[in-house]
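S.,

Sequence below, as promised.
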Amino acid sequence: MYRNLPPLSAVRVFEAAARHGSFTRAADELGMTQAAVSYQIKALEERVGAPLFLRRPRQVELTETGLRLAAASTQALDVLSAAFGTMRDDVAGKLTISTVPTLATNWLAPRLGLFQLANPSIAVRLETSPRYVDFSREDVDVAIRVGTGNWPGLVAHPLLPTIFTPMLSPELAASIGGINEPADLLRLPILTPTDPWWAQWLTAAGVSPEGLKGRPQNEMGSQANEARAAIAGQGVAILTPFFFTSELASGRLIQPFDLLWEDKACFWLVYPQGRRNLPKISAFRSWILAEAAASQSD
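The prediction came back faster than expected:
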């Protein structure tokens, strides 16, 4: 619906002049010259079609029309000020994080309570998705991405490496008398054998990846799903150890070899350059970088 409204700047000037009963004090409040205040009010009077002030020596006085408009202007500006204040507080107090599912479930979510204890005024909303979010189109403040850190227009901080190693249930290992050497893994079902991590790790372990060929082309979709399948004894998974510390500690999964291999890509904290100084992003950045460093030194 079209609204035939005067410029907001003119309304602000008029409201200040009416409240102070002075063009000079209105100019001081708004950081303008008195001549600029007079110009804006004159333009508003021309739009209304009637004088809003009676100009007297050293003072101004509202006309009857001015009195009616002053009350409405003050009320309208108060409503706008309250609305913008509420939105500003809401934006400042809510942090939306987008990240990949496994990191969210197995690493970030268990730690977020610590961030909220340290920052009780910031409410956290966690979104999980394997895709890259578009900061210009989506209501997301920060994201955790996997890659090499080269995203134009974004600030990127290295967070966690993508290290990996085979894991399986102790029952599955016992089914072939134990895992004594890396080649023993190929005697068992391999979950997602097309995952390039498998070929990299086997090669590093001195085992030909040819043994992966001809297997069912299963794909679990995420490390979290692979870990659940491995715990159920369905096969050997290739996983990132610090995502599954509780499963390893409880014995639901075992890591038969100390050999860890690292992919060129890693996890990065990213956000638009223009938001780098927002207090909520600054607080989260400091916290998560410290958490990431601590989790790798454990």
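The radius of gyration is 32 Å.

Coffee later?
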